[in-house]
Amino acid sequence: MPVLLVALLIASCTKLDEEMFSDVPADQYYGDKNSVIAALLRPYEHGHWCGWDGDRWLLQELTADQFVWTQKGKHGYDDGQWIRLHGHNWDVRQGQVYGGWIGPFQGIMQCIVIGDDIAKLDYTTMGMTAADQKQHVAELRTLKAWFYMFLLDFFRKVPIIEKAEESKPQSEPAEVFAYIEKELKESLPDLPKNGNVGRWDQAGAASLLVRLYLNAEKWAGTAKYTECAQWAQDIISGKYGDYSLDADYRGPFRSGVGGYRSPENIFEFPHKLDLYNFGWMYNAHMHYAMRYAFDNDWSSWNGVHMTPSRDLDGNIYNHKLGKPYEKFAAADKRKQSYRTTSANGDYEGFFIIGQLYQFNAARKFGYDSTKVVNGSEEYNGKPLIFVDQVGRFSEKPGGRWTEGSHVATGEENSGVRLLKFPWLQRSAGLFMANSVAEIRLAEIYYALAECKYRAGDKAGAATLIDAVKKRNFSEANWPAQSYAANIGKLTDDEFVDELGREFLGERHRRPDLIRWNRFGGEWWDKSADAGDKTVFPIPQQAIDANPDFIKPNGY
């Protein structure tokens, strides 16, 4: 079986039509340990792209209540695709829906091809052991299961492919669920505990089972909260490796900076500028002028921001869902405006709101409060002040101001910008040095808390959430925020809000809303769904490519 030879740390996955650099038989390629590891890591690189660079993130976040890509004057209409995602009006030809299909399947095929190659090699001739070989095969099976979880979540009925160039009809959701479960359980014993950064280990595989069981009722039709709770408790108890909650609210998101590794991150994708970029999260979210504030020359598109909490008059919307910025308590450390606090990559806050100032080059961190950053569109030559609102304020009282607050009526300063994933000083070699946490121990705590809450153990759920949440508040402010001390505050609606705060921007929101029967609800510029939109339609491109096997999924 031929193997695709691609340099390990290149951005080849930034497009779907990946370039084949060379195609050689496996028996000529796998000549030493380095070539084996290079092949093994190739699907991981695709996995990073699949999870954190575009369509999959957009499907999980822009269809939910916390993020939106507004049209900003002449920019960002993009054939109405963002309006359709926000309003749940996609169809079989929506580009992001096809991306949700093809991206995971590309990763699955890489895992299959390389896994088949590796299983046939004689590791002893390359200075490795049979245990190494089992581990590598187990890693690829785990990664393949992770890719399949996207497909089960998005489409439910998908083909289970186990051989290269194989065509098969779609399996029922329960069959896909069982296949993922089997792959993870069979792989886990051959994985190490506390493995290398960016590689699947036992806790990672166990955490994927927690995700699978937590969503089993929606994904496969049978609730498995008991199984979810047991696996989550075992992870927390250290059965599959030593992990602990980070004492610092920033810790999981600055892992990798200056050699720091967060003890909370069970699985993270590492980054390095110009080798393994985390650029999309910057390109899509940041204003063109933010490079002047953040000591870098990276381009950006000024697209995604948080859904507005306030209407055109400054009043907080009365929808239960959405309003993400306002749902953070004023005393929450995360709600601070983002700024670097040292030349070594220290920072505070998760958000950009209000006046933007230029980077303080003299101090090599923070802002120079004497130098504002100006806009370039509606506020050309005027101070750039980000607002938690969407509307054509620059045209008030004429122009399109009268249209109100909608996805199509944004301006260049519309919306709070998320900087949970920090953008540190390029001059200090810190820009894009941070990893992105795919699985945090906090997720396991919240999953176990949800299982306990659903079982009627509200006190147990409150204790678990508090263990994570406490780091976001000072000692003086904590008593008023504790769920255990204020147990009446922990309602269904509050649980959904708390999930939104803790996992903001981490590709959790759509499945969380679906699991809590909120996805069809009303939020800013979106009315309640007329029908079930919790599953995406099989994209027309997938059907056209293989009409004998791929059929509409009935949604």
List the helices and strands and how they pair.
Blueprint (H helix, E strand, L loop, with lengths): L1 E3 L18 E3 H4 L3 H20 L2 H7 L5 E3 L11 H7 L7 H26 L9 H26 L17 H15 L14 H13 L1 H5 L4 H12 L28 E5 L10 H6 L5 H4 L9 E3 L32 E2 L6 E2 L2 E2 L1 E2 L1 E3 L7 E6 L12 E2 L30 E2 L17 E5 H14 L3 H12 L8 H4 L10 H11 L6 H7 L24 H6 L10
Antiparallel strand pairs: 1-2, 3-5, 4-14, 6-7, 8-13, 9-12, 10-11
Compact description:
The chain is mainly alpha-helical and 555 residues long.
3D structure, described in words:
The chain has 555 residues and is mainly α. 36% of the residues lie in helices and 8% in strands. The protein contains 18 helices and 14 strands. The chain has helices spanning 26-29, 33-52, 55-61, 81-87, 95-120, 130-155, 173-187, 202-214, 216-220, 225-236, 280-285, 291-294, 441-454, 458-469, 478-481, 492-502, 509-515, 540-545, and strands at residues 2-4, 23-25, 67-69, 265-269, 304-306, 339-340, 347-348, 351-352, 354-355, 357-359, 367-372, 385-386, 417-418, 436-440. The strands form seven sheets. A two-stranded antiparallel ribbon has the order 1-2. A two-stranded antiparallel ribbon has the order 3-5. A hairpin with a 7-residue loop joins β10 and β11 (367-372). α10 (225-236) packs across α13 (441-454). The longest helix is centred in the first third of the chain and has 26 residues, at 95-120. It is globular and about 70 Å long.
